[in-house]
Amino acid sequence: MPLPRYSTGAIALHWIIAVLLIGQLAGGLWMGTIPEDNRQLIFQVLQIHKSVGITILLLTIVRIFWRLTHKAPPLPDVMAAWEKFVARVVHVAFYVILLALPIFGWAMISSSARKVPTVLFGMIPWPNLPLPANKPLHEFFEEAHEYTAFVAIALIVIHVAGALKHYFSSNRGVLSRMIPIIEPSAKEKKA
Ligand code: HEM
Ligand code: HEM
Fold this sequence. Notes:
two-stranded antiparallel ribbon, about 190 residues, Fumarate Reductase Cytochrome B subunit, binds protoporphyrin IX containing FE, mainly alpha
């Protein structure tokens, strides 16, 4: 009997968002290394950063809606109770971060005194949030954006460490639920 898997929509959204998020984190950290006098490059890179960030936000809203309307396969019993607990906490934290991180970025630019227009992928004008231009507020969102980015990195490390642990302890059925190219082990197929 085939093991239950996530729906195709959930798998597609998981992997599209995972690739965009890792690229966005790397790109965000790289942005900080561009010399301040290279204003043209900073402007162009920020437009891409804002476009991808808003895309992650919109895809996450779709994903949460999908998650609430499509049942996820249960975590298999090969997982210890504490492993299931950590996995669930990390999943919920991911959803919170995937909303909070781009919203903090959006709030950061919206509360800045310098109103730079945002045009998604050079095509779609994107509004600012209705926030006053206020330095302490802007700095608060800037810090919040930076800290949540580091929380995202920590969650990815824990999540991938869990995935690797299950892969190497032959509980590959846990992974095949989200990574269809991985086969469950023979032991799991019999169970
Ligand atoms: C980098 C960004 C990533 C994010 C934001 C992310 C997020 C998530 C979330 C929220 C779930 C739970 C889905 C649900 O039940 O609602 C999940 C499941 C899963 N993810 Fe990721 N993931 C990421 C990267 C990865 C990577 C790189 C791997 C593989 C090495 C991976 C492997 C899995 C697997 C196997 C599951 C299903 C197992 C389980 O339910 O715990 N993910 N992921
Ligand atoms: C999931 C989506 C996002 C991720 C992972 C992300 C990640 C990052 C990271 C790692 C940095 C560098 C932080 C630092 O060194 O201070 C950064 C900076 C920045 N991000 Fe994002 N970001 C996202 C979404 C957004 C969005 C949606 C916007 C605006 C609409 C935005 C606007 C900015 C700006 C303006 C900076 C430069 C801040 C500064 O110079 O202090 N980000 N982002």
